[in-house]
Every structure is written in structure tokens, then in C-alpha cells.
Design brief:
Layout lengths: L9 H8 L4 E2 L1 E6 L5 E6 L3 E4 L4 E7 L5 H6 L2 E6 L5 H7 L12 E3 L5 E3 L4 E13 L2 E13 L5 E4 L2 E4 L4 H4 L15 H22 L4 H12 L5 H9 L7 H9 L18 H21 L5 H20 L10
Antiparallel strand pairs: 1-11, 2-3, 2-6, 4-5, 5-10, 6-9, 7-8, 9-10, 11-12
Helix pairs in contact: 5-9, 6-9
The structure holds flavin mononucleotide.
Length: about 325
């Protein structure tokens, strides 16, 4: 969509501006009574290397305006990826934004916050009118670079940086030096074996087959499943709920006896529930160990992408039945 001239719609303009990904900063100063003042701002940018200068802009309606107009010093904190709560705190008007925060004092006695990615202490060199904002250009008097991964803002949402895969493709330890190292099936298989080995050992120790393990954990996660649905979900692993398997689950005291129909709900007995919890705990511990080099977002993304891979392969008709949950 394009718009020109005086017909520019503020909402669409804002949304188009949001396509520019930025970092997030908190700019601080103090007012004439010595009270600390600050706000979240993503209008920060570099201006000049020599002399070192930066800029940011402040809405004329901002409650912080009198302090930034009166004080000739400010500090810009480039927030780290884990500082979103702080960004929210400083974007809220009328609260004591500094409550409970540990602070140092910088040039001009300006409050300095901890834990950020970089910090620039500035003397205000220029102030310019810029429509409904005032642009502050600061000459950098001192700075710190802590090198924590930055918080990102894009399209009105917080995000985190994900380095391009191409730049990383050949870094890290190779698990195998053959062509297979980049074959998804091989990587998934190898990862699955590492994740699954402790569960297999646990099942072997208790004399439980893999299909039994699948049914127990399925029923623990989704107690409302019918025999037919369990059969369909098992089919995704290449197994099925055969009459022999159903009988074994009942005879072992793990599943309540039913009428044997596809529509009958399969219900775990308390004993079956206990066993499923024990195996589930081993599986979760294995997941934690195998993914210890990933952070929460990376793990969430990995799971989401794997679900898409499974959906994609189901959609090609190579497998039958329903999608992953
Ligand atoms: C990610 C983000 C970026 C923001 N960037 C700016 C900005 O560059 N300039 C600005 O004036 N307000 C910006 N704001 C809004 C202010 O943080 C918000 O209006 C704040 O309540 C102002 O506080 P004050 O009225 O106490 O000064 C931003 C808010 C968020 C969440």
C-alpha cells in the first residue's frame, strides 16, 4: 500500500515505520530537583564518529520533556535481550520507574542502569524541533560496551537477534565429516537417538516396549483420547494400537478395561499414571540435557519448525492421520 502528501494516515505511517527494526534504549537524566527521570526510546541512532555523537527524539507530550530540556546531560542504555521488563517499566507513564533498581551515577550525576548491552553518557550538544518530537543530539563523553545480546523491536513487537544461518553454517563442532552432516533426516535421526536413549534405557529397565511407552505418555498428556485416536497418533510413529497391545496395557494394570471399540475412551489406571509420570520425567531430563546449549526462544523455535517439518511431510501423503499437537 502507498500513500502520498497530506492524505497520509497516521496509523499506516506508524506501521510502515515499524518495518525498520531497531534496538531498544532507556534514556535517563535527572530533573532540577535531583529526581531521576527516564523513558524507553527506540529513536536512538549514531550521528558522528569524530566527534562521537548520537541522537534520539522525545515526544513533546512526554512527561520527561522538562527534565531533558533543563539538564544538559543524559545517558542512553542499549538494552540487552533479557531486559524487556525494564523496557516495559520505562515505557509506563506516571510510575516510579527507578523503584528497586540498582544505579550508579555518571557524568552530570545522571543515573546509570546495569545489565545493558552498551551505555553512552552524553552532553546535550543540540536540540532540534522535529514536528511533534524534539531531537536531542548528544556528544558522547564516556561509554561502556558490555556485549550482551541486544533486545530488538520490530513491527511493534519485541524480538531477539538470530544470526543468519549462512554465516554460521560451518562453525561449531562437526558431528560427522561426510556429506550427511547437512542432511536433515540424518541430523534429526541423530538428535532423536541422543534424546531417546535414556527413555529407551528406562523402558527396558521396566520391561516396557516402545509402543507401550507411546500409549502411556499419550494418555497422560491427553486423557480424553479414544482407542481410535490413539491408534491414529501411534500410526505417526509407524506403530498401531493392535488388539494384542491393547490387551497388554489392560493385563498389566496400566489402562482400564474398555469395550474394545475405536470409540471407547482409553483411561490410565493410577498405576499406569504413575508409570507414565516416571517415564515422562526421564524424557524431560533427556530433553533438558540434549538442548542445554539452546536458550528458551531457540528451543521454542526449534520445536515450532520441527512441527512444520512433520506437518509438511504428512501433507505430502507419505504418512496418514492427524497433525502433531
Ligand atoms: C519500544 C518503545 C520505544 C519507544 N520509543 C520512544 C521514543 O523514541 N521517543 C519517545 O518520546 N517515546 C518513545 N516511547 C514511548 C515512551 O517510552 C513512553 O511514552 C513513556 O511513557 C514516556 O514516559 P514519560 O511520559 O514519563 O516521559 C517508546 C516506547 C516503547 C515501548
Amino acid at each position: 500500500m502507498s500513500q502520498t502528501g497530506s492524505g497520509i494516515d497516521g496509523k499506516f505511517f506508524r506501521s510502515a515505520l515499524g518495518s525498520f527494526a531497531t534496538g531498544v534504549t532507556i534514556v535517563t537524566t535527572h530533573d532540577s530537583e535531583g529526581g531521576d527521570v527516564g523513558l524507553t526510546a527506540n529513536s536512538f541512532n549514531s550521528v558522528s564518529l569524530d566527534p562521537p555523537m548520537v541522537l534520539w527524539s522525545l515526544a513533546k507530550t512526554s512527561g520527561s520533556m522538562p527534565a531533558f530540556m533543563a539538564n544538559d546531560h543524559f545517558a542512553v542504555h542499549v538494552l540487552a535481550a533479557d531486559q524487556q521488563p525494564l523496557s516495559d517499566q520505562f515505557a509506563r507513564r506516571g510510575t516510579n520507574k527507578f523503584a528497586g533498581l540498582e544505579m550508579e551515577r555518571g557524568v552530570g550525576n545522571v543515573p546509570l542502569l546495569d545489565g545493558c548491552s552498551a551505555r553512552f553518557q552524553c552532553r546535550t550538544a543540540f536540540r532540534y524541533e522535529g514536528g511533534d518530537h524534539v531531537i536531542f543530539v548528544g556528544e558522547v563523553q564516556a561509554f561502556d560496551h558490555f556485549d550482551h545480546p541486544p533486545l530488538v523491536f520490530h513491527g511493534g513487537k519485541y524480538a531477539k537477534m538470530m544470526p543468519r544461518a549462512a554465516a554460521d553454517a560451518n562453525s561449531g563442532e562437526e558431528v560427522e565429516s561426510s556429506f550427511r552432516k547437512d542432511f536433515l533426516g540424518y541430523l534429526l535421526g541423530l538428535a532423536s537417538i541422543q534424546l531417546h536413549n535414556p527413555v529407551k534405557a528406562c523402558c527396558a529397565q521396566r520391561g516396557i516396549s516402545e509402543p507401550v511407552y507411546y500409549v502411556l505418555t499419550l494418555l497422560m498428556a491427553r486423557p480424553d483420547l479414544t482407542a481410535g485416536q490413539v491408534n491414529d497418533l501411534l500410526a505417526l510413529t509407524g506403530e498401531g494400537l493392535t488388539p494384542a497391545l491393547a490387551q497388554q496395557l489392560v493385563d498389566s494394570g496400566w489402562v482400564e478395561p474398555g469395550d474394545g471399540s475405536r470409540e471407547a475412551r482409553l483411561k490410565l489406571t493410577p498405576q499406569g499414571c504413575q508409570l507414565a509420570i516416571e517415564i515422562f520425567a526421564v524424557a524431560k531430563a533427556a530433553e533438558g540435557a540434549a538442548t542445554r546449549l539452546l536458550d528458551f526462544e531457540e528451543l521454542t523455535l526449534l520445536k515450532r519448525l520441527l512441527k512444520q517439518v512433520i506437518r509438511g511431510s504428512l501433507a505430502t501423503g507419505t504418512e496418514s492421520a492427524s497433525s502433531p499437537q
